[in-house]
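Task card 7
Instruction: Convert sequence to structure tokens.
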Amino acid sequence: MTRSHDRPEGPAAESGAFRLRIEPAAMLGEVKLRATPDLAHALLAQLKEQGADASYGAEFGLDHGHLLIVALMMRDNGVWMTLRTAIEAVANRHQGTRIRVELEDRAIEIEGKSTSEMEALLRQVQAIYEAGAQRGRDGSGDGAGA
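Output:
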């Protein structure tokens, strides 16, 4: 259960639209999900309901465009299915609301149900994460992860 002091507040999302930016951070062993406040709260609740190791992250001194951070810790490959399921569950609960999902220079919008584009985007997130983890094992990583 999330206590109110564990829940950062931020400005309200634009009416009818959520924004989610996914940032694989292999060197930190996590994936950062930057989301509009309502979406961040819903995603964190859904991820925790599924037993994922997720929490609010914090960054100081950075302008993050009014996006809250949910840090999803990577424990095994099953976490990718957990993330997809969480995004789809939140989308299903907010029928009629578009969720803009971003990764680097790619962006897709989903409404209600995950699409093949969403599946492809999450496979790309996984590939970026795994490449960053490999660079870290080889000692050539720069710590950025994405």
